[in-house]
């Protein structure tokens, strides 16, 4: 297996549309003859070249974590969607594989999910090999242009060789459009209590649930969300799953991305906590919760078929925002994924909340270091003993660029207006502020990569993800107000930008 860092060299061959994309950037972006490689993350997944957005079809099978993703291989902006593909044995090192699904006569291949059909309910399996089945949205651009609202419908494909080769089901689509313009992003799971498949589908500004015995014929179950959550934009990329709380009691979590309408404007992911009886999702309260209160974590969903002996609910998101995703100052490639995270249920002020925790596999990447210098390839800064005090953390470089994080008893904010290249879009310079729900802020863990900061407060009770584009890596940090225990760890993996 070739890890991702051996294949990054392919990206130097791609510089499509660089000049066209430089019109809305400042001078330091315009002279970036490296195509944005200086911003390529050291320990976050990126495509070898071209455009990437939503993670799709994440599934675990025979020792491999599969990550498919929305991909346009011919340009660095959104276009006819394919499914890119990569696999990992450890959620840290990724092997790029050939494109899995291509646009066809039914349209572009939009977002969706993948499952292992262990009992061969679909009949796609052969010689005792359970099929890997992808369930996705076909999007017909010609029908859309013609003004019809039937241009999105659901289809399936299957693989019998661990996702390397795929066959489209001859009976596609498996779920026709009833006349709804936004009808997409199926997330499917096996509901063992009733031995059936359940699909969660984004439909305008709500979700619909469907059921099937064979992944090919689907029946409507119920609807959720018409009067719940944020409705400033269209709902996308839903995910419904069971997650036990700290006492082992069963909770159901429904993730739903919305664009626009997030806490910092643009796109973000909201979630609801409740119960699912096989037909309906019943919310537990009227809160609108955000999985991430920053600007740059969207369309994330969880892996299917994680072994029971592992037991984790593993998540990854697209690390960008539709406000400016097409304009960020990278050209050979566009977009990264968040670090993989484990989702847990915790209680904050007596209310159940989803906690996001970096997967423990990441621990192998960081070695504790003394001093106040950040590694150019990336660092992890841990601060303990805050105990509710007002705290300011500033990251800076020799070029006078800085990003400032402030946490008080009631609010968290991040100022990236002087963080580096910021003029490619007017919304990027805005200060991001959120009234948090934490009882007392005790700890902060900040993962600093070349073009991002991921801030985990109180072990993941609150998460804030933000892109940055400094002209040179942040080399210094300062922590003010209070007496804290600080641990600095440096990333020790391969330096992708230098390969």
Low-confidence stretches: 1-31
Q: What's the end-to-end separation, in Å?
A: 17 Å
What oligomerization state is this entry in? single chain
SS element count, helices: 4
Query: What helical percentage do the residues reach?
Result: under 10%
- Tell me, what's the shape? globular
Q: How much of the residues is beta strand, in percent?
A: 35-45%
**Which value, in Å, is the CA radius of gyration?**
22 Å
Main sheet summary: 6 strands, antiparallel
* Structural classification: mainly beta
Topology, please?
Layout: H1 4-7, H2 18-21, H3 27-30, E1 50-61, E2 64-72, E3 82-88, E4 95-101, E5 108-116, E6 132-139, H4 141-145, E7 152-159, E8 167-168, E9 183-191, E10 196-203, E11 206-212, E12 219-224, E13 234-244, E14 250-259, E15 268-276, E16 281-283, E17 289-290, E18 298-302, E19 314-319, E20 333-334, E21 336-337, E22 341-348, E23 351-358, E24 366-369, E25 379-384, E26 391-396, E27 402-407, E28 411-415, E29 432-435, E30 443-449, E31 452-457, E32 462-467, E33 476-480, E34 485-491
Parallel strand pairs: 1-20
Antiparallel strand pairs: 1-2, 2-3, 3-4, 5-6, 6-7, 7-8, 9-10, 10-11, 11-12, 13-14, 14-15, 15-16, 15-17, 18-19, 19-21, 19-22, 22-23, 24-34, 25-30, 25-34, 26-27, 26-33, 27-28, 28-29, 30-31, 31-32
Short description:
By secondary structure, the chain is mainly beta. The protein has helices spanning 4-7, 18-21, 27-30, 141-145; strands at residues 50-61, 64-72, 82-88, 95-101, 108-116, 132-139, 152-159, 167-168, 183-191, 196-203, 206-212, 219-224, 234-244, 250-259, 268-276, 281-283, 289-290, 298-302, 314-319, 333-334, 336-337, 341-348, 351-358, 366-369, 379-384, 391-396, 402-407, 411-415, 432-435, 443-449, 452-457, 462-467, 476-480, 485-491.
């Amino acid at each position: 297996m070739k890890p991702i860092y051996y294949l990054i060299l392919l990206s130097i061959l791609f510089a499509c549309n660089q000049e066209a994309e430089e019109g809305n950037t400042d001078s330091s972006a315009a002279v970036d003859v490296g195509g944005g490689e200086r911003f390529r993350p050291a320990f976050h997944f990126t495509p070898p070249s071209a455009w990437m957005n939503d993670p799709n079809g994440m599934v675990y099978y025979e020792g491999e974590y599969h990550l498919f993703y929305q991909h346009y291989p011919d340009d660095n902006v959104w276009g006819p969607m394919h499914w890119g593909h990569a696999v990992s044995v450890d959620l840290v090192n990724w092997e790029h594989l050939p494109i899995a699904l291509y646009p066809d006569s039914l349209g572009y291949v939009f977002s969706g999910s993948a499952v292992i059909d262990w009992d061969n309910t679909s009949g796609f399996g052969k010689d005792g090999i359970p099929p890997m089945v992808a369930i996705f949205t076909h999007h017909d651009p010609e029908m859309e242009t013609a003004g019809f609202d039937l241009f999105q419908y659901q289809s399936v494909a299957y693989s019998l060789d661990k996702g390397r080769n795929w066959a489209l089901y001859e009976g596609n689509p498996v779920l026709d459009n009833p006349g709804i313009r936004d009808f997409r992003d199926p997330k499917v799971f096996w509901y063992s209590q009733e031995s059936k498949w359940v699909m969660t589908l984004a439909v305008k500004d709500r979700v619909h649930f469907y059921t099937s015995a064979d992944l090919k014929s689907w029946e409507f179950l119920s609807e959720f969300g018409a009067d719940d959550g944020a409705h400033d934009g269209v709902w996308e990329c839903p995910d419904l799953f069971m997650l036990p709380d700290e006492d082992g009691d069963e909770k159901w979590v429904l993730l739903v991305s919305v664009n626009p309408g997030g806490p910092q404007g643009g796109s973000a992911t909201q979630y609801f906590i409740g119960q699912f009886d096989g037909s309906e999702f019943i919310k537990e309260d009227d809160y609108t919760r955000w999985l991430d209160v920053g600007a740059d974590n969207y369309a994330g969903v969880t892996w299917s078929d994680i072994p029971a002996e592992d037991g984790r609910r593993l998540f990854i998101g697209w690390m960008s925002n539709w406000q400016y995703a097409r304009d960020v100052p990278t050209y050979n490639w566009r977009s990264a994924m968040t670090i993989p995270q484990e989702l847990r249920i915790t209680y904050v002020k007596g209310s159940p909340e989803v906690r996001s925790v970096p997967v423990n596999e990441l621990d192998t990447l960081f070695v504790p270091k003394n001093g106040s210098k950040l590694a150019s390839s990336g660092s992890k800064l841990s601060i303990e003993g805050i105990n509710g005090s007002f705290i300011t953390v500033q990251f800076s470089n020799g070029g006078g660029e800085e990003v400032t994080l402030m946490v008080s008893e009631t609010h968290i904010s991040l100022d990236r207006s002087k963080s580096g290249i910021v003029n490619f879009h007017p919304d990027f310079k805005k200060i991001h502020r959120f009234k948090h729900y934490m009882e007392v802020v005790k700890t902060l863990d900040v993962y600093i990569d070349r073009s991002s900061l991921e801030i985990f407060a109180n072990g993941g009770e609150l998460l804030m993800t933000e892109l940055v584009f400094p002209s040179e890596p942040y080399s210094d940090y300062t922590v003010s107000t209070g007496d804290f225990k600080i641990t600095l760890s440096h990333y020790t993996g391969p330096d992708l930008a230098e390969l």
